[in-house]
Amino acid sequence: MTTVLASTLSGKPVLSTNGEKLGTIENITMNLASGELEDVFVAPAKEVPTATARAFETTDDGTLIVPAGCMRDVDDYLLIERPDR
Hints:
- The protein is mainly β and 85 residues long.
- It has a single domain (6-80), classed as Roll (SH3 type barrels), CATH 2.30.30.
- It has one helix at 50-54; strands at residues 13-16, 21-30, 37-44, 57-58, 64-67, 71-74, 78-80.
């Protein structure tokens, strides 16, 4: 995957590899020592399929926590693969 500035990720749409709209990037977490991205916090879309939403951990308010290892590509949107695939 290409190098991307973290500041360009906020508000970017998030899609699954099978075309489901998951929501938009709300926040990220990084390892400060290594500079590596750890997780992406996604404000869920209203129509996120239940099975897809359950594939990820969530915060108390329902925000999806997507591990960086699930990221496949980033351009006009962030493409992710469910961890159970």
